[in-house]
Design a protein that fits this description.
Interacts with OEP61/TPR7. InterPro entries: C2_domain_sf, DnaJ_domain, Ig_E-set, J_dom_sf, Sec63-dom. It comes from Brassica campestris (Field mustard). It is a multi-pass membrane protein. Required for integral membrane and secreted preprotein translocation across the endoplasmic reticulum membrane. 50% of the residues lie in helices and 11% in strands. A hairpin with a 5-residue loop joins strand 9 and strand 10. It is elongated, with a radius of gyration of 37 Å. The chain has five domains: 67 residues; 64 residues, DnaJ domain (Helix Hairpins); 34 residues; 166 residues, Sec63 N-terminal domain-like fold (Orthogonal Bundle), CATH 1.10.3380.10; 156 residues, C2 domain (Immunoglobulin-like). The N and C termini lie far apart (102 Å). Strands 1-5-4-7-8-11 form a six-stranded antiparallel sheet. It has 686 residues and is of the alpha+beta class.
Length: 686
């Protein structure tokens, strides 16, 4: 019985241990993520971002952000754990080992006379004749009397001093740390014990495994449904125009799960009338186009209208129920657009190339959603050949303001950025009619806008020149600068209700053939991770080329300094195509800012195969490479906005713009880098 009571007393300790094993490391991970997220939240300080409320640290917002199911469950488990610790601590006091010397307040080895004196002293204090308190009576009978008997009996005292127990040496005991009622096998508790064993040892792991497998079979590692990826894969087309990307984007399975309520019909009808001009409906057949639009799946109609509400900044007219759906649509948008972009650049051709046109359209759609700018604003107009979308992302800017500054020959966003602070302030106050506070807001946003440069090289490692079938190593340093000196920061996005980090996509593509040769996502938020990745990549490359320890160390040190200075390393491998000259373009596109994209022209000449031997290799895009590739010539770096005209101006025809480029200079089989103005590059081509 005593052993059973002791095992039952250990049950809380057993539960406490089982809880602590997963709870403590999970809590540490959660806290580290929270600290890292707090350090990363460097955001825009303009009044519009401040009024959006998503960066405010109010008590209500803190409670709302904290009150998630995972956080509340974590707190509840810690409360239970603290209670078990407190209970175990008190229980240990109640279940102390019987120590007669401690009970009588004596030291081991004292004489019999001292034992009798201590007993008489405690008897005066706790004897029932002296103290009527029932607790005192219980303590006297169960503790003091037993302790006195154990020490006055010579055999018991010798056993206690020798073995620590009045009864002598104790045998080794084993037990189960379960409650006492579960160990009563003779009664009905036997079935309870069986249920306990089956539940904890069989059913619980089985339920966890079923939940995990069901989720893993439904979602990818990026928490996107497999059904969504399948739909994106089959709906993606090489000639998909940017305005048509929306039709593919809204087919996500996640959006199909958004509830469709009858009470939403009237608000959606009103929203449709507000955004009808943005839906690419044929005005000549408006009735048929409207009927065709409403015949789509109700969830698709609802999703597209809610996205258009974001693009046109009409979310304020939504009903409370639609506001919840609106936030859900925008919460899912960034990762769905990322997966859609991956589907665009997924190797589809026989050479293992993706498609450029839909990839550009996905990035442009992402920019418009984050900045809440209509897709129609990207079309060239009489005010600006590049569209007015870059202007509309600035606070206090509207169509009227853009038209006013256009009268002063400021028709491109780059011209506005390149103006001096005094000239820009004078233009915005005197010509556009903005206040000094508005101008200050605009300057804060312009200081947050990134400026990109790309330094790219391609070569066949260990060989001179690039030949057919070579495995070419692409290395690009993408450098980001901001006027305010920051590197990693959250973009200006007052109309996007969630924190959105900047992501950049590097695409090496042939705009003539619409092929993407190489793609990679770049982030400037995690400097530590970038340093680790760049160090490992450079170290492996140097060791592979046979460089010495000192050369490798110097190269790694130089790479670390570049990363700390705002650069990120992009490296990959691709297989050289057949012999010929290829005019490639390296696009560096941001998914959050409009008008900050850059492109670098790269002229590559692949020579005929003359080297012996082959190299088998599976490239990053998945194409099987057999031999090598070679490239040469010069690199021209220029603003993406100066050269690239958004394809929204050609959506009506849904045709791809094919740019004819002139012949290049003779190649010597090597790659040469050179940055020059458009006039210089034009003279070289002639």
């Amino acid at each position: 019985m005593a052993a059973s009571e002791e095992n039952s007393a250990l049950f809380p300790i057993f539960i406490l241990t089982i809880m602590a094993i997963p709870l403590v490391p999970y809590t540490m991970v959660k806290l580290s993520r929270a600290v890292a997220k707090k350090q990363r939240t460097i955001h825009c300080q303009c009044l519009e971002c401040d009024r959006s409320g998503k960066y405010k640290r109010s008590l209500f917002k803190k409670i709302s952000n904290f009150s998630t199911w995972s956080n509340l469950t974590l707190v509840l488990l810690w409360v239970v754990m603290i209670f078990l610790i407190y209970y175990t601590k008190n229980m240990s006091r109640e279940t102390q080992v019987f120590d007669p010397f401690s009970i009588l307040g004596l030291e081991p080895g004292v004489s019999d006379s001292e034992i009798k004196k201590a007993y008489r002293r405690l008897s005066i204090q706790y004897h029932p004749d002296k103290n009527p308190d029932p607790e005192a009576n219980k303590y006297f009978v169960e503790s003091i009397s037993k302790a006195y008997q154990a020490l006055t009996d010579p055999v018991s005292r010798e056993n206690f001093e020798k073995y620590g127990h009045p009864d002598g040496r104790q045998g080794f005991q084993m037990g189960i740390a379960l409650p006492k009622f579960l160990l009563d096998i003779d009664g009905a508790s036997g079935g309870i014990l069986l249920l306990w064993i089956v539940g904890v040892c069989i059913l619980l792991p089985l339920v966890i495994a079923v939940i995990y497998l069901s989720r893993s079979s439904k979602y990818t590692g990026n928490y996107v449904m497999h059904q969504t990826l399948s739909a994106y894969y089959y709906l993606m087309k090489p000639s998909l125009a940017p305005s048509k990307v929306m039709d593919v984007f809204t087919k996500a399975a996640e959006y199909m799960e958004i509830p469709v309520r009858r009470t939403d019909d009237e608000p959606l009808q009103k929203l449709f009338m507000s955004v009808r001009s943005e839906l690419n409906l044929d005005p000549k057949n408006m009735k048929q186009e409207q009927a065709k639009f409403w015949k789509q799946h109700p969830a698709i109609v609802k999703t597209e209208l809610l996205i258009q509400a974001q693009l046109t900044r009409e979310s304020g007219v939504l009903s409370p129920a639609l506001q919840g759906d609106f936030r859900r649509v925008l919460e899912l948008a960034p990762r769905l657009l990322e997966e859609l972009l991956k589907m665009a650049v997924l190797p589809r051709t026989s050479q293992g190339h993706g498609w450029l046109r839909p990839a550009v359209g996905v990035v442009e759609l992402s920019q418009c959603i984050v900045q809440a700018v209509p897709l129609s604003a990207r079309k060239s107009s009489g005010v600006s050949s590049e569209g007015i979308s870059p202007f509309l992302q600035l606070p206090h800017f509207s169509d009227a303001v853009v038209k006013k500054i256009a009268r002063k020959k400021v028709k491109s966003f780059q011209e506005l950025q390149e103006m001096s602070l005094e000239d820009r302030s004078e233009l915005l106050t005197q010509v556009a009619g903005l206040s000094a506070t508005d101008v200050d807001d605009i300057e804060k946003v312009l200081e947050m806008m990134p400026s990109l440069t790309v330094d790219i090289t391609c070569e066949t490692e260990g060989e001179e020149g690039i030949q057919e079938g070579d495995i070419v190593t692409l290395q690009a340093w993408v450098t980001l600068k901001r006027p305010n000196g920051l590197i990693g920061a959250l973009p200006h996005s007052p109309y996007f209700p969630f924190h959105k980090e900047e992501n950049y996509w590097v695409l090496l593509a042939d705009s003539v053939s619409n092929n993407v040769w190489f793609s990679q996502k770049v982030s400037f938020m995690d400097e530590g991770g970038a340093i680790t990745a760049a160090s490992k990549t450079i170290s492996d490359a140097m060791e592979g080329s046979g460089a010495g320890v000192k050369e490798t160390s110097d190269a790694v040190r130089e790479a670390i300094e570049k990363v700390k200075g705002g650069s990120r390393l992009v490296m990959g491998k691709l297989q050289a195509p057949s012999e010929g000259t290829y005019n490639l373009t390296c696009y560096c596109m941001c998914d959050s800012w409009i008008g900050c994209d850059k492109k670098t022209s790269l002229k590559v000449k692949v020579l005929k195969r003359t080297r012996a031997g082959t190299r088998g290799f599976v490239s990053d895009e998945g194409a099987i490479a057999e031999e090598g590739m070679e490239e040469e010539d010069e690199i021209e770096e220029e603003d993406y906005d100066d050269d690239y005209e958004s394809e929204y101006s050609e959506d009506e025809d849904d045709k791809k713009d094919v740019v004819e480029k002139k012949g290049s200079k003779k190649a010597n089989g090597t790659v040469k880098k050179k940055e020059s103005s458009s006039e210089e590059s034009g003279s070289e081509e002639e």
